[in-house]
Design brief:
Pfam families: PNPOx_N. Keywords: Oxidoreductase. InterPro entries: F420H2_bilvrd_red/Heme_oxyg, Pyridox_Oxase_N, Split_barrel_FMN-bd. The mean pLDDT is about 95. The N and C termini lie close together (about 10 Å). The relative contact order is 0.26. It is globular, with a radius of gyration of 15 Å. It is an alpha+beta fold. The chain has three helices and seven strands; from the N terminus they run αββββαββαβ. It has one domain: Roll (Pnp Oxidase, Chain A), CATH 2.30.110.10.
Length: about 140
């Protein structure tokens, strides 16, 4: 799997509001994978979670993560990333989740009564398939 920097076509795809899943590792070693929204900014991935999610505990315990972003119109075209959470930020005022929600829906995030946490992911390796298969 190639290492960053990512080629421009891969960055362009990641900048879109793609379907995505994020995977982490539970303390017992089992993987956990869930759908997620994300933003790709400055070579890193931003994800945001409800502060009560167990995934936060899993990622604080083991910051390794995998994220796969799939083109909504052609799910075979996807980019899979392996990396690690390198920075945690309390999402004061829901600024990050609003940016992410606007990216996907054009609207601010609807749930306003729950604390949220942002995690920045550094990309260690990546893989692309479909129309990006031969991009390096």
């Amino acid at each position: 799997m190639p290492r960053p920097p990512l080629p421009a076509p891969v960055e362009e795809m990641l900048a879109q509001p793609n379907f995505a899943t994020i995977s982490s590792v539970r303390p017992d070693g089992h993987p956990v994978s869930v759908p997620t929204w994300y933003l790709y900014e400055n070579g890193r991935i931003l994800v945001n979670m409800d502060a009560g999610r167990k995934r936060i505990d899993y990622l604080r315990n083991d910051p390794r993560v995998s994220l796969s972003a799939m083109d909504p119109g052609d799910w075979i075209t996807h980019v899979s990333l392996q990396g690690r959470v390198v920075d945690w930020v309390d999402d004061e005022g829901l600024v990050d989740i609003d940016r992410i929600a606007r990216h996907y829906t054009g609207q601010p995030y609807a749930v306003r009564d729950r604390a949220r946490v942002s995690a920045w992911i550094d990309i260690d390796r990546w893989h692309a398939w479909g129309r990006l298969k031969h991009v390096r």
